[in-house]
Amino acid sequence: MYVCVYTCINIYTCMCTRSLSIKDKVHLEAAGHVCILKDAFDFESPSEIANLIEAEKCEAALALHLYRGGRLVQGHGIPFGIIFGGTDLNEDVNREEKSKVMGKVLEEARFAVAFTESMKEMAQRQWPHAKGKIYVQSQGITTTPNAAFNWSTFLQRAEINQSADNLHVFLLVCGLRQVKDPLYLVDAFSEWHQEEPNIYLVIVGPEVDPVFTKEVKAKVERAPGVRLMREMPQADLHAAVKNCFAVVNSSVSEGMSAAILEAMDLEVPVLARNIPGNAAVVKHGVTGLLFSDPQEFVQLAKRLVSDPALEREIVANGKEYIRTHHSWQVERDTYQRLLRKFEGSL
Prior knowledge:
Layout (H helix, E strand, L loop, with lengths): L1 E5 L12 H12 L4 E5 L6 H11 L3 E5 L5 H4 L6 E4 L3 H4 L5 H13 L2 E4 L2 H10 L7 E3 L14 H7 L10 E6 L12 H10 L3 E6 L5 H12 L4 E4 L4 H10 L2 E4 L8 H8 L4 E4 L2 H4 L9 E3 L2 H13 L1 H18 L2 H12 L7
Parallel strand pairs: 1-2, 1-3, 3-4, 4-5, 5-6, 7-8, 7-10, 8-9, 10-11, 11-12
């Protein structure tokens, strides 16, 4: 039996979507293993994981996020693998104590998975002793929009009382925490909405950080043209993405945004903040648009609204990029191959 300890926002979510945690569980179970999904934020200490391992007779572990997940699964006498998240390599690595902990986790891990070559290189520079055990596997993407989803009902719940035919709704899919920076574009969107009342930004996601959530709610309540909605079931979220005009990412740090990749798969344009994690999957003007500040975002978004040919080109290129670089089957084969590194210990 395998316990997958995920550093996610709820028991099934990872990096603000359900896709990664559920996918890994499916991959493990397809190989004949039993997989228990747990949220790393539900555990205060490794001893609690030890109790879980004993109670469920777990034989191995797979942890997402080198620090938050990895530190919980090490030292229990069972083999484990690590999947880098994003903030572990982009932020936690700059804190000496956390970096030491992560280095020790990598020493014990049987393998570690990076989403991109640049993430792998970053990890190898920081922890040279782990060079032989870090593998690159991009996220495999599959989307399942709910065919019964009603876009008009969604708009009503978001208190957008206009005909869907005349709207341009931009979706920002993220957990409400500072690293996702959901307020980054709020002022710019409000100004644009006052010029063009059919423009809206809808922020969708779980309330991860209670203190920050209060700040977000207060800001959005005062922001014309901006709406905030709670987390949605994955199939409904995919359907909402399919119906919106474009998906936005304004994160300060990303490993590999599933929301961006899912939007591409659903043939919806992407506008993403120009950070390394986003630039690794979004080629500006080809598979999406990258912006460096709110003003540039508005310029690019207006261009996308007024240029249907550009929209069609970006959508087609994004869909092809997903098909060629984010295969679900390739991802499954990689993880099932890596699981063999646990053999001999079970």
